[in-house]
């Protein structure tokens, strides 16, 4: 398979961890006979410094001519005080999501078994690790409601600041397309899907529940679907997370639940994400930022970046076997006691604390070992 990948490493630790991500993709290409054609481009603060904009035309052009975007992280203190539209996150990440209509945000909450003791829940609740995928609707709901009712005249009281109003609006096609992404993901995993809403109170949630139910029944009857209210889902995530496999939910609920889910895993340097369009085109990035405090020290954990590469292979190119191979190689490195500084604790053996580049090498090493 031959694919073009836009490589946007960004700022801070971005370039360091991206180097390891590409190292692993190169190893996959070699092992499985693929050609990945990388086109690097500047994004974020470094792009602002060179072109005066965090998402210059040159970079958009590279993205337009690619099959997927592999993204590092952007931002840092140097660019914090720019006008909002020129800051790395507002000026680059949000426009990228908008331009490519990346309406589906996939955020796994994973704990590899060997790291269960580093997580924030009691380790018996996480025995054998944790593997949840949250599919969050990213371009609708209450965060975007205002745009859809622009034509309605707000009541005078709101305009005078006497009260404030937000609209949670969902249309059938918006719910159907996110249900489709969630079903697709569930089919690639364990055919188990939990839809989270507040259908006992909200009209938009009643519609959500009906559309998800109809969609699953008519397209994927083999998927085991259950529904949960969002307040209960939060409690269940915090007490018994292993009951979940794929969770699908609207924008705001997904924002809150995915932060909760990543907090219980205890390590920001391990968690990847994907933002997908209907076409399968997507942007793949670690959930963490540019970590300016450790940039340039070769000690950042590259595993979230490497796992984002695994998601890219799976969701953008359908390369499930290759994606799995990366996850297994990481598992082997962790099982053998290798850690980056952020994962190390008192029990970490001497000599097993690796630098960024050494962890990348280690993953490649285990990738090459036939088990
Ligand atoms: P951050 O995620 O960059 O860092 C938070 C803490 O986690 C720091 O102590 C950092 O050293 C550590 N950390 C993060 N990733 C790590 C890794 N891979 N290995 C080891 N330790 C790691 O969040 P923070 O400090 O709030 O933001 C820093 C900059 O990143 C800001 O400019 C922010 O706007 C930007 N940012 C960018 C994002 C993106 O590109 N999507 C997302 C979040 C923040
Ligand atoms: Mg959030």
From TrEMBL:
Its EC number is 1.1.1.85. Mg(2+) binds at residues 231, 255, 259. Keywords: Amino-acid biosynthesis, Branched-chain amino acid biosynthesis, Cytoplasm, Leucine biosynthesis, Magnesium, Manganese, Metal-binding, NAD, Oxidoreductase. Binds 1 Mg(2+) or Mn(2+) ion per subunit. One of its GO terms (biological process) is L-leucine biosynthetic process. It is found in: Cytoplasm. It catalyses: (2R,3S)-3-isopropylmalate + NAD(+) = 4-methyl-2-oxopentanoate + CO2 + NADH. Its main location: cytoplasm. Coiled coil: none annotated. Substrate binds at residues 97, 107, 136, 231. Its cofactor is Mn(2+); Mg(2+). Belongs to the isocitrate and isopropylmalate dehydrogenases family. LeuB type 1 subfamily. Catalyzes the oxidation of 3-carboxy-2-hydroxy-4-methylpentanoate (3-isopropylmalate) to 3-carboxy-4-methyl-2-oxopentanoate. The product decarboxylates to 4-methyl-2 oxopentanoate. NCBIfam families: leuB. This is 3-isopropylmalate dehydrogenase. The gene is leuB.
């Amino acid at each position: 398979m031959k694919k073009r990948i836009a490589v946007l490493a960004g700022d801070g630790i971005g370039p360091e961890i991206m180097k390891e991500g590409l190292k692993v993709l190169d190893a996959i290409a070699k092992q499985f006979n693929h050609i990945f054609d990388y086109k690097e481009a500047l994004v974020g603060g470094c792009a602002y410094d060179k072109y005066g904009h965090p998402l210059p035309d040159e970079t958009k052009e590279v993205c337009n001519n690619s099959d997927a975007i592999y993204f590092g992280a952007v931002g840092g203190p140097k660019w914090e005080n720019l006008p909002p539209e020129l800051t790395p996150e507002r000026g680059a990440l949000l426009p990228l999501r908008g331009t490519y209509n990346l309406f589906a945000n996939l955020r796994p909450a994973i704990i590899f078994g060997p790291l269960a003791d580093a997580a924030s829940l009691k380790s018996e609740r996480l025995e054998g690790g944790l593997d949840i995928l949250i599919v969050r609707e990213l371009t609708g709901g209450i965060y975007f409601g205002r745009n859809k009712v622009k034509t309605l005249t707000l009541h005078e009281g709101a305009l005078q600041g006497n009260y404030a109003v937000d609209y949670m609006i969902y249309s059938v096609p918006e719910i159907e397309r996110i249900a489709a992404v969630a079903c697709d993901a569930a089919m690639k995993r364990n055919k188990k899907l939990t839809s989270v809403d507040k259908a006992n109170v909200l009209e938009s949630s009643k519609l959500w529940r009906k559309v998800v139910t109809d969609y699953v029944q008519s397209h994927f009857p083999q998927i085991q679907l259950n529904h949960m209210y969002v307040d209960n889902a939060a409690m269940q995530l915090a007490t018994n997370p292993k009951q979940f496999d794929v969770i699908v939910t609207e924008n705001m609920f997904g924002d809150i639940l995915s932060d909760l889910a990543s907090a219980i895993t205890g390590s920001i340097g391990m968690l990847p994400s994907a933002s997908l369009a209907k076409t399968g085109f997507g942007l793949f990035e670690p959930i963490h930022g540019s970590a300016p405090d450790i940039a340039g020290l070769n000690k950042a954990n590259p595993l979230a970046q490497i796992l984002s590469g695994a998601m890219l292979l799976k969701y953008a190119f359908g390369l499930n076997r290759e994606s799995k191979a990366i996850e297994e190689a990481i598992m082997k490195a962790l099982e053998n006691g290798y850690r980056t500084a952020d994962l190390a604790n008192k029990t970490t053996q001497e000599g097993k604390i690796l630098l960024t580049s050494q962890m990348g090498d280690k993953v490649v090493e285990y990738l090459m070992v036939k088990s």
